[in-house]
Design goal:
10 helices; 52% helix; 316 residues; alpha+beta; 9% strand
Length: 316
């Protein structure tokens, strides 16, 4: 649109963090270093860039997880469903689905104060592309005022698009919560009837502990299905569908590849350790425990070093 290129990120799944940058011709920066707005001071190495962050507490799921805590959310829903069981399928006294829906939607529509984009300085484009954000290149400009106008307007459009996507996810999440109450199916409960993943949704509607789900249900179930190719493939496809919203699809692919290796040698200690680390990494990403990631990444890298071959012999 208007010559703007998205250099990084998925336009259909914005992450809530964005960087926009423009290239400025040397003459433009030199000629506009005076006046009420010192445009040239915003440019470094011929790059004018801004960064905006709009994801903090931006949706009801994040609100419930961060403000109420995932465990208390699970407990609250569990108690409602236990009451439903005990009362023969009737809703708890005083709980009206419509009013409950209204309350959830009220929470989901809370206005979040916009976080203004701020000027950033980078050495080059390669450094910009290392950012964990959706990245946009708006073009080259010979006029600083035009570049400034464009680059400060883009975060407003970005935030509107991001909120629109969040709104659609909100509605899906609310419907899933309500369906759990209405149909007696808790999203964090152990699946019945051979299903190894909770509910019929995906990671967007999951509010439990992801590491526990992976280690206690998903991995054991998939390894149990290892002997039957068709069943294993179908189950792995179901897992991949569940994990579609996860922001680093390569991690999910590596889990699948590691499970396939373990199909032929389930006693491969090195691959079992790799699978454990990948589950921990995916969970840390999902629950935003980013401080755990460097240690996990380091251990994953060490697995592929020559000296790590002793793991195959059972020495962790």
């Amino acid at each position: 649109m208007l010559g703007i290129q998205q250099k990084k990120g998925d336009p259909d799944r914005l992450c809530g963090r964005m960087v926009a940058y423009a290239k400025i011709t040397p003459s433009a920066a030199k000629d506009q270093n005076s006046g009420p707005i010192p445009f040239a001071s915003m440019v470094r190495n011929g790059i004018l860039a801004v960064r905006g962050e709009f994801e903090k507490n931006s949706n009801i799921k994040r609100f419930l997880q961060h403000e109420a805590g995932a465990s208390s959310v699970d407990k609250g829903i569990s108690e409602m469903i236990e009451h439903i069981k005990e009362s023969g399928g009737e809703l708890p006294e005083g709980l009206d689905i419509d009013s409950f829906r209204d309350r959830l939607e009220e929470l989901s529509s809370m206005e979040i104060i916009p976080v203004p984009a701020k000027i950033m300085f980078y050495d080059d484009e390669a450094e910009i592309l290392e950012e964990n954000a959706d990245i946009y290149y708006i073009g080259e400009f010979t006029g600083m005022s035009q570049a400034h106008l464009c680059i400060t307007s883009l975060p407003i459009l970005y935030q509107a698009k991001y909120r629109e996507q969040q709104s659609a996810e909100e509605q899906s999440y609310i419907n899933e919560l309500l369906s759990q109450i209405e149909t007696d199916g808790l999203i964090t409960s152990k699946p019945e009837g051979g299903e190894f993943l909770p509910g019929k949704g995906n990671l967007l509607t999951f509010v439990g502990n992801l590491q526990e789900l992976l280690e206690r249900q998903v991995v054991p179930y998939l390894l149990y299905q290892a002997a039957e190719e068709d069943q294993f493939t179908a189950s792995l496809n179901r897992f991949n569908e569940f994990m579609v919203p996860y922001k680093e699809p390569k991690d999910v692919q590596l889990i699948g590849a590691t499970l396939r290796k373990l199909r032929t040698n389930e006693n491969n200690v090195k691959e079992r350790f790799r699978l454990e680390l990948l589950c921990r990494k995916v969970s840390a990403m999902y629950h935003e425990k980013f401080e755990e990631l460097p240690g996990i990444q380091r251990k994953l890298a060490e697995l592929d070093l020559p000296e790590s071959k002793n793991l195959d012999e059972g020495n962790l």
